[in-house]
Amino acid sequence: MNATPITDISVQISFFGAEGGLPLVLKPTAPIDDLPGWIDAHRDTLEAWLAQHGAILFRDFGVGGPEAFEAFAEAVSPGLYGEYGDLPKKEGGRNTYRSTPYPERQMILYHNESSHLPRWPRRQFFFCELPSTVGGATPIVDCRAMLRELPAQLVDTFERKQLMYVRTFTRGLDVPWREFFDTDDRRAVEARCDAAGVQYEWLPNDELQTRTVCPAVIVHPLTGERSFFNQVQLHHVACLDPDVRMDLIDMVGLKRMPRHAYFGDGSDIGDEAIALIGAAYERCAVRFAWQAGDVLMLDNMLVAHARDPYSGPRKIVVAMSELVDRAQFAQHANA
Question: What are the residues facing 15 on neighbouring strands?
Fold first, then answer.
């Protein structure tokens, strides 16, 4: 990395990826005694850089632990989200979470956080409390670049048809619907699905299947740029280990897989298209080795992230802010 001094804000700037790409790496040229004050004084500059690059890595800023990280994230983006049910809460934190509990030897594939849900965070923070000894990078991808990498016809199809995420709550394969919705009342579940625009079907054996149609390509509300924004890799069965995929299909059939993704009209997304998407993500991916104290800030609507396999203890703390409501976003985008 070739560092260029930015003396007016007392940091050096560099890049892990292509020059001018992501993440933008900031390192203080001298200790910053009043970090919240420094953030407040340079808030507009940081916001402009985030919009341009999509990701900023704060390194050597003296963020000494999870509590300091929460204070840092709150100073950058007041009003951290503290009611996110998909991640376990961080011990001792009010609005921070532990990273996704997922087998260490398996990769968590590329996704934009909560892009399949009615609300998602525009801003996401990661703090390295303890880096793993082997692996464990958090690869990041500029989703604007993804649209340039993918075949134009495929992008057009995703943009027109959108995505349908299908989830089947089958006992033993996924959490029971009662646990997920925290109720025994089917009518309450139906009311929540109706309010969120989620289609649902009650299946035999007390199972529930939901279908949610969401954008696959969005226009960023601040920059006006188009972005490949979805979780197709986390849902499409082509991304499963082949043996696991075949075992599940043998058990329940393709139509009742725990998770799957289709085009928004219900038509199949072929394995070839999923392979093209996976290859494009890897071509665009930027990896860097975590250092203790690192804080990575992403614009979740511009940047997807993943997690590489690892060994050894690894502690990454997560925070989120600036929730975007899909219904309001769609109204704004169509205005």
Answer: 24
Phi, psi of 203 (to 5 degrees): -110, 165
Q: What is the spatial distance between Cα 249 and Cα 259, in angstroms, rounded to a whole number?
A: 12
User: In a 3-state reduction of DSSP, which class is residue 283?
Assistant: helix
Q: Are 305 and 100 in contact (CB under 8 A)?
A: no
Question: CA angle at residue 126 from 110 to 29, to 5 degrees?
Answer: 125
Kindly state the tokens that stand for 245.
């995929």
Q: Could you tell me if 304 and 126 are in contact, meaning their C-beta atoms sit under 8 angstroms apart? A: no
Alpha helices of the chain — where are they, by DSSP H?
A: 35-41, 43-53, 66-76, 143-149, 152-161, 177-181, 186-196, 232-235, 242-252, 271-284, 326-334
pLDDT at 17: 76
What's the average pLDDT block by block, 10 residues per block, for the chain (335 residues)?
48 82 92 89 94 96 94 94 67 80 93 94 97 97 98 98 96 86 95 94 95 96 96 97 94 94 97 98 97 98 98 95 84 52
C-alpha torsion 58→61→62→68, nearest 10? -60
Q: For residue 201, what are the contacts with CB-CB under 8 A and spacing of at least 6?
A: 208, 209, 211
Longest Cα pair distance anywhere in the chain, in angstroms? 66
Distance (Å, whole) CA 150 – CA 234? 18
161: exposed, middle or buried (Cβ count in 10 Å: 0-12, 13-18, 19+): middle
Instruction: Give all strands (DSSP E) within the chain, no chain letters.
Output: 4-6, 11-15, 24-28, 55-58, 97-98, 108-111, 119-130, 134-135, 140-142, 163-169, 199-203, 207-214, 217-219, 226-228, 259-263, 295-299, 303-307, 310-311, 315-325
The Cα 35–Cα 54 span in angstroms is 22
Residue of 251, 278, 320 whose CA lies nearest to 85 = 320
36-57: b or e for each residue (b if 16 or more CB lie within 10 Å)?
eebbeebeeebeebbeebbbbb
Q: State the pairing for strand pair 24-28/55-58.
A: parallel
